[in-house]
Write a structure and sequence with these properties.
Layout (H helix, E strand, L loop, with lengths): L36 E4 L6 E4 L17 E5 L16 E3 L2 E6 L2 E6 L5 E5 L23 E5 L4 E4 L3 E5 L6 E6 L7 E7 L2 E6 L3 E6 L7 E5 L9 E2 L4 E4 L6 E4 L6 E5 L7 E7 L2 E7 L6 E8 L5 E3 L13 E7 L2 E8 L2 E9 L42
Antiparallel strand pairs: 1-2, 3-26, 4-5, 5-6, 6-7, 8-9, 9-10, 10-11, 12-13, 13-14, 14-15, 16-17, 17-18, 18-19, 20-21, 21-22, 22-23, 24-25, 25-26
């Protein structure tokens, strides 16, 4: 019809299929982002697809760590010489370590530190309602935190500190000057302490009742102890044997006797494993963090080698938080707060017995006919 335009159908071109590859993360899960941009041009030019897949590796949980990357949290010198720092506790955004006779809090993100309680160079058994009133005497170990308070051992006994105010009190006096508490650990409402002569006591942090004596001389007082919601773990005196102890029934079970018979300076429970800081030789400092399976006692080295900022020089404390291990470490260059973060383990590939060929050229070695006639060609059995 004159003066009337008729629409002509246009057959659209089918969009090409885009195969987006997915890379497996170290934990075996597959994570891929959606197509980032999809731009079209007129049908006469077809489709123009721009695909930018982003594959992100899922974080590795601390309970599955097979290798760790070590980073420093504090600057060199902030915590003083190595002899000033023993143990570490984590509560909220802060880690708590001692610097001589002071308890410091360290911002885990920035590394900035400030004094919570105690006075430098002033040693006594004084409690107080503020941090500047509190005095400590030869802090032996920062034990841990229960969600509100930080606990430590000093020459006075078991001390409890409120990190919000610095207020400090003495929960229990040292059992004796010749057999003092050396190591401790917290699991839920229970706080466990062990003396030099391997006497273990348990405190109920919710009731504030007197400590209960659990064991005597089963495990070494020179080794750190660890606990979960069910069991207490410790290494036998001078025999490299790891025991699992039921604090309710008093029964103990040998897990393994294959540990290296060297003192464990720090230990923490995470899931199905214990992470322990081993000395390399008697008289040396702890240079290695090892994962120990709670079921069969198998071990795996998870800390990197090296010293100073790139390795470990003398571990005195471990605390688990944020899917990391926070490490109190110290050496000739001073005391540090470091963090060990799980990373993908690098697979070890055996060297090839011959050069690995990716492409090759074929050449003849013998002259034509030197090896006789070729065998007759076999029928494939397929009719054509």
């Amino acid at each position: 019809m004159a003066g009337t335009e008729r629409a002509v159908p246009v057959k659209a071109k089918a969009a090409p299929v885009v195969n987006q590859s997915l890379a497996a993360t170290p934990t075996g899960s597959l994570i891929a982002s959606p197509v980032s941009s999809l731009a079209s041009k007129p049908f006469s030019s077809g489709w123009d697809l721009t695909v930018s897949p982003a594959v992100t590796a899922a974080p590795i949980p601390l309970s599955e760590m097979e290798a760790g990357e070590l980073t420093t949290v504090t600057a060199n010198g902030v915590l003083g010489p190595a002899s000033d720092t023993n143990g570490v506790a984590v509560l909220g955004g802060y880690a708590y370590l001692n610097k001589g006779t002071q308890l410091l809090k360290v911002n885990k993100a920035s590394g900035a530190s400030s004094v919570v309680a105690g006075v430098a160079g002033s040693a006594s058994c004084q409690n107080g309602s503020t941090g500047d009133q509190v005095r400590f005497k030869a802090i032996t170990r920062v034990v841990g935190a229960d969600g509100r308070f930080v606990y430590l051992i000093d020459g006075c006994g078991l001390r409890r500190i409120d990190p919000a105010t610095g207020a400090g009190s003495t929960i229990a006096a040292q059992p004796s000057s010749t057999n003092p508490w050396q190591h401790g650990t917290i699991a839920g409402k229970w706080l466990y302490l062990i003396t030099t002569n391997a006497i273990i006591s348990r405190f109920d942090l919710t009731s504030g009742s007197a400590p209960t004596l659990l064991y005597n001389n089963l495990i070494s007082g020179y080794n750190a102890i660890a606990a979960d919601d069910t069991y207490l773990y410790g290494v036998g005196a001078s025999n490299g044997s790891l025991y699992r102890i039921d604090p309710v029934t008093g029964t103990h079970t040998l897990i393994t006797n294959t540990l290296n018979n060297l003192p464990i300076m720090a230990m923490v429970s995470v899931g199905g494993y214990l992470y322990a800081a081993f000395r390399d030789t008697y008289g040396s400092t702890a240079l290695s963090i090892v994962r120990i399976n709670k079921t069969d006692g198998t071990t795996l080295l998870v800390s990197p080698t090296g010293t100073g900022t790139t390795g470990l020089s003398g571990v005195t404390g471990l605390a688990a938080a944020d899917d990391k291990l926070y490490v109190a470490d110290g050496g000739a260059d001073g005391a540090w707060l470091k963090a060990l973060t799980p990373v993908a383990a690098t697979p070890v590939t055996a060297p090839a017995s011959a050069p690995v060929m990716e492409a090759g050229a074929v050449s003849s070695v013998t002259a034509d006919g030197a090896l006789g006639a070729a065998p007759p060609t076999r029928s494939s059995g397929v009719s054509t």
